[in-house]
Amino acid sequence: MFNLIKNIIGGSPKNDESHNYKEYKIIPKPKRNGGSFTTEGKIIKDTDEYQEAYFIRTDTFSKKEDAVDCIIRKAKIIIDENGDKIFEKDWL
C-alpha cells in the first residue's frame, strides 16, 4: 500500500528504468530464468557517436528489484574500472 501511495504522489522512478551515471546511461535488462532473475544490462554512451555495450554476470536473484539494484551497481563498477574501453571489440 505504501509503494502505491508513493508512486501516485511522485515517488522515485521505477528501478528498472535507465539510470544516468557520469556520461553513460545504464539500462537494466533482467530476464526471468526459472524462478530467478538474471543480472544483465546495457551501458550506452551517446555523445559524439552512439555506443553501447551489453554485459551479463552470473548473479541471480529471486526478486526483480534486487537484480536491478545489482545490475546498476555492477554497471557503475564496469564504467569506473574500464571507461570507454567497454565499447572496444574485444573488451570481454
The total tally of domains equals 1
CATH fold label: Double Stranded RNA Binding Domain
Radius of gyration: 15 Å
Count, helices: 2
Secondary-structure element order, as H and E?
Answer: HEEEEEH
Main beta sheet, described?
A: 5 strands, antiparallel
For this structure, what is the CATH class? Alpha Beta
For this entry, give a set of tags.
5 strands, 28% helix, 2 helices, elongated, Double Stranded RNA Binding Domain, alpha+beta, five-stranded antiparallel β-sheet, 92 residues
Summarize the structure.
The protein is an alpha+beta fold. The chain has helices spanning 2-8, 64-82, and strands at 19-21, 24-28, 32-33, 36-46, 50-61. It is elongated, with a radius of gyration of 15 Å.
Topology (elements, then pairings):
Layout (H helix, E strand, L loop, with lengths): L1 H7 L10 E3 L2 E5 L3 E2 L2 E11 L3 E12 L2 H19 L10
Antiparallel strand pairs: 1-2, 2-4, 3-4, 4-5
Please tell me about this protein's structure.
The protein has 92 residues and is of the alpha+beta class. It has a single domain, classed as 2-Layer Sandwich (Double Stranded RNA Binding Domain). The chain has helices at 2-8, 64-82, and strands at 19-21, 24-28, 32-33, 36-46, 50-61. Strands 1, 2, 3, 4 and 5 form a five-stranded antiparallel β-sheet that branches. The longest helix has 19 residues, at 64-82. The radius of gyration is 15 Å and the shape is elongated.
